[in-house]
Design a protein that fits this description.
It is built from 3 helices and 12 strands; from the N terminus they run βββββββαβββββαα. The chain is of the alpha+beta class and 186 residues long.
Length: 186
């Protein structure tokens, strides 16, 4: 049985593993292009991640933390990587509690999307939670964050100011805006 090849598919001829870290790995693939030529592709492999649009008392729960690749602090929704074999909705509940102290029994899936498909395979699962109770923060030993609750108007102002500039948080802010206008996240 032959494999059905998409007309733009790039066939991997060889993979060289360059780096394997705690979170990501890097490989360079030699590929055959649709026109028969060859090229190299640098690919970051990632286990996947989750993020939570958490709403409490009509405010969005966010964390501010320093992001070394950007060399600045960012305000973001709670998020984190998936542990091996972990279900995304369980990871979302865990990350929300660890980073913010807020506890929820359940989350609803909003969307899943690839963060940078030109060079990485990271998929991010975005959830919403609005039945929250206050618990205690349980940060990783290398995490330093401030948690706050902001209104939709404040979130949009943070976007204009560049304090919120990551795709997952901007997506969450606009999903929340749609919800406030329509009563539905769909």
């Amino acid at each position: 049985m032959t494999k059905n090849i998409h007309k733009y598919e790039e066939v991997t001829l060889h993979t060289e593993h360059i780096f394997k870290g705690r979170i990501i790995s890097l490989q360079v693939d030699d590929v055959r292009l649709p026109n028969g030529e060859t090229a190299k592709r640098e690919i970051v492999k990632h286990p996947g991640a989750v993020a939570v649009l958490a709403i409490h008392n009509n405010k969005m729960i966010v964390v501010e933390q320093f992001r070394k690749p950007l060399e600045k602090s960012q305000v973001e929704i709670p998020a984190g990587k998936l542990d091996p074999g972990e279900e995304p909705h369980i990871a979302a509940i865990r990350e929300l509690q660890e980073e913010t102290g807020y506890v929820t029994e359940s989350v609803s899936h909003l969307s899943s999307f690839y963060t940078s498909p030109g060079f990485a395979d990271e998929i991010l699962h975005l959830y919403v939670a609005d039945q929250l109770t206050v618990g205690s923060v349980n940060l990783d030993e290398d995490e330093f964050v401030d948690c706050e609750a902001i209104t939709l108007e404040e979130a949009k102002q943070y976007i204009r100011e560049g304090r919120i500039s990551d795709a997952k948080t901007i997506t969450a802010v606009y999903a929340w805006q749609v919800y406030k206008l329509t009563g539905s996240f769909e």
